[in-house]
Write a structure and sequence with these properties.
The structure holds 2 protein chains of 2 kinds. Chain A is of the alpha+beta class. Chain A contains 11 helices and 10 strands. Chain A has helices at residues 3-17, 19-36, 40-46, 57-75, 92-122, 130-153, 158-178, 186-211, 214-233, 237-248, 331-337; strands at residues 256-259, 266-267, 276-286, 293-304, 309-319, 322-330, 342-352, 368-370, 374-380, 385-390. In chain A, strand 2 (266-267) and strand 3 (276-286) form a beta hairpin. In chain B, 31% of the residues lie in helices and 32% in strands. The chains are: A alpha+beta, B alpha/beta. Chains A and B meet through helix 1 of A and strand 6 and helix 2 of B.
């Protein structure tokens, strides 16, 4: 038997052995399709978009997939010395390939088909969303299937696998969810996280299927995950921006931003409280229309003459076609600094848009598809009309 | 005749515990090499190192001409491994197990497989997890003999089995032609004696001896010396084990029996020898003698 023939042979055996688990995951996907379809007509009938609610399937499907992967891999468990396959003429490459085939055949492909069906039944164009469908497969494979497969390869049975999954999830979820967002630059860090997860998953599977040194590999995975987390969490914003600029191109060199001395600076009394003071600083833009700018992230530093500094994140809004930089300062600092000169230094990470396009959307409710925001149209409610855009994978961008 | 399996100073340590200490042995082609020893002597460890189930701490083993550290995949097309501790795919029926394994082995023999199934009275449609322990061993052995392996490694195959099942397993092993060499570890000395050609005795991870069974049987004799005036001579020869003295009779086990030399030695050490009897020993008695002597020495 060649390696591929052996992989197919083991794959057929696994399908027979795990037919109930496979049927369970496919059934869940059918339920996903049946409950996940939202047509434009349905949206119009409701008078607006359905409120987002976390479906039980969003929890059940990953659990079912994880169990299927773990059962498939542990049918020929890698740790230990008792398993019958260890002294049979199994090709390690064939074995790994058979498990990959099972995952692709019964997780990736059915999910792809289910999502494609939902998109089609939703009335969204399938071809325009094909990239999104594939990217979704990459995300699920790297962030869920690969780590689960790696953990299954390090354990002998579900009794070992389940606590490991729960423990790993608990340890990683905290730092990842608690870290400060980079705003629109977050995708750079997410991509890095994706790469780290993929690298660790591949490393574990490659080592386990080649060497079967479970303890060493587990320590290696633990160390790599710790280092990966540090790199991920400490990834500098300016580097993320530099990468984004390189990928997307730099803004026009003529563009300058400075504090607008001509406009009266006011404190934002609306958000004032005993402990914090909101400060709004107008920014003058030259070399570009402020409406073509999107500030991805910004950080501002105030320094008094006596050397006291405060650094804070800030948001930048477009107010009356002007950029206004709003930040929150602690009351003590604000009171001490408000009547004396303050040195202000601000960092902006922004995206400059060009080539503005306009598309007419009919008011009669007929939706049109716009590449980027997705399907847009006017939905008539009980007492008003709402302009709605929806897309298969992304939240439509507010600037559009 | 070449050796199908050799080890040279093969050792395994688990932290401070020496599980196997510089094991050197050779299994000639066509032989049935029985590895004997008390519990914890290192038999299973030795077999697992040979099968590359564990890495050796030092030393090396060669199995069918292949370094055991490289042993995997295709190499097992010619090797069978049956162990009492092996996890079988319990969900498979016997019939599916045979169908599943067949494509892995170019030398798979359907006729031999069905012959073994009949011989072992294995129900083809029942899941292996519902088999008794004895039936599981038979299933494992049947699926390992069906491809005529060049080397069959059996780790405690008879442990905990009823006499009839043991007999059936041994019969199947005896049916293997000279093309199959067998390495078997066991406590069941009476069974081993009926089909082993070579014996290796392991104690605390060390191979005390390894030789042909015929040579071993010839070497060990239970000696009974009738004397006028009983007394144990001093110094007592190191190769005379388990001395017992009763009025007028001294008994011991001679581990290097040579008719002329042993009798000469007895006459030299004892006074008033009236009768000497040298009885051949069954393997079980040899094993017990060695095990007890080791315990006393320890």
């Amino acid at each position: 038997m060649t390696t591929f023939q052996q992989a197919l042979h083991i794959f057929r055996k696994d399908v027979r052995h795990l037919r109930f688990e496979i049927a369970g995951t496919v059934l869940l996907l059918i339920v996903l399709v049946l409950t996940g379809v939202q047509t434009w007509e349905g949206l119009q009938a409701r008078g607006g978009p359905e409120s987002d609610s976390e479906s039980a399937l969003a929890v059940l499907l990953p659990i079912a997939w994880s169990l299927l992967i773990a059962r498939a891999i542990q049918t020929e468990a890698l740790p230990g010395d008792r398993h019958f396959w260890l002294t049979r003429p199994y090709s390690r490459a064939g074995l790994l390939l058979s498990k990959a085939l099972l995952v692709v055949a019964f997780i990736n492909l059915p999910l792809l088909v289910a999502q494609a069906a939902i998109i089609s039944l939703d009335g969204l164009p399938l071809w325009s969303n094909f990239g999104g469908l594939l990217w979704n497969q990459v995300l699920i494979s790297v962030l869920l299937l690969l780590p689960v497969a790696a953990m299954a390869a390090l354990t002998r049975n579900l009794a070992q696998f389940l606590p490991l999954v729960v423990l790993t999830g608990a340890l990683l979820a905290g730092p990842v969810s608690a870290h400060d967002s980079m705003g629109d630059l977050e995708w750079i860090r997410s991509s890095l996280g994706l790469f780290i997860a993929a690298a660790i998953g591949v490393l574990v599977l490659q080592r386990q299927y080649r060497l079967r040194r479970s303890v060493n590999t587990a320590f290696l995975a633990l160390g790599s995950t710790a280092v990966g987390m540090i790199v991920y969490l400490a990834f500098p914003q300016n580097l993320a921006f530099a990468i984004q600029s390189r990928v997307m191109g730099s803004p026009d060199g003529q563009l300058t931003l400075r504090l607008d001395q001509t406009r009266r600076r006011t404190k934002d009394t609306k958000d004032e409280n005993r402990y914090r003071q909101m400060v709004a600083l107008p920014i003058a833009v030259t070399g570009a229309d402020p409406r073509d700018l999107r500030v991805d992230s910004s950080r501002i530093t105030f320094k008094t003459l006596s050397g006291i500094t405060r650094q804070s994140r800030a948001r930048v809004n477009l107010v009356e076609q002007q950029l206004v930089h709003t930040t929150s300062l602690d009351r003590t600092f604000f009171d001490a600094a408000k009547d004396s000169p303050v040195h202000v230094r601000a960092e902006f990470y922004l995206t400059q848009f060009g080539r503005a396009r306009s598309i007419d959307v009919p008011l009669d409710g007929t939706p049109i598809y716009i590449s980027g925001p997705g399907q847009c149209g006017v939905v008539a409610g009980y007492d008003r009309r709402t302009f709605v855009c929806r897309s298969a994978f992304e939240t439509p961008r507010p600037f559009l | 005749m070449s050796d199908v399996l050799t080890t040279h100073n093969l050792s395994k340590r688990y932290r401070k515990l020496v599980a196997l200490d510089k094991l050197s042995l050779a299994v000639p082609e066509g032989s049935v090499y029985a590895l004997l020893g008390a519990n914890g002597a290192g038999k299973t460890t030795a077999l697992k190192l040979m099968m590359n189930l564990h890495p050796a701490t030092s030393g090396e083993a060669t199995v069918l001409g292949i370094d055991s550290r490289q042993l995997q995949g295709r190499h097992f097309e010619q090797i069978g491994y049956v162990s009492e501790n092996q996890d079988q795919p319990g969900w498979m029926t016997m019939s599916y197990l045979l169908r599943y394994l067949k494509p892995f082995y170019p030398t798979w023999d359907d006729a031999r497989a069905s012959e073994l199934v009949t011989q072992f009275r294995l129900p083809l449609d029942r899941s292996i997890k519902h088999f008794s322990r004895g039936m599981q061993m038979k299933a494992s052995l049947a699926s390992s003999l069906a491809y005529h392996p060049k080397l069959l490694v059996l780790d405690e195959p008879f442990s905990g089995l009823d006499p009839l099942t043991r007999e059936e397993l041994i019969e199947a092993l005896l049916e293997c032609g000279p093309e199959t060499s067998i390495v078997v570890s066991s406590h069941d000395l009476a069974d081993i004696e009926s089909f082993a050609s070579h014996i290796g005795y392991l104690d605390k991870g060390r191979l005390e001896f390894g030789e042909e069974l015929s040579a071993l049987s010839a070497r060990f004799r239970e000696i009974e010396v009738t004397l006028d005036e009983p007394a144990l001579p001093a110094p007592w020869p190191a190769h005379w084990l388990r001395p017992e003295a009763s009025p007028a009779v001294v008994r011991f086990v001679e581990t290097h029996f040579d008719s002329e030399r042993t009798i000469g030695e007895i006459r030299l050490l004892f006074r008033g020898v009236t009768h000497i009897e040298a009885n051949p020993m069954p393997l079980r008695s040899i094993f017990v003698t060695l095990a007890r002597s080791t315990q006393i020495a320890a």
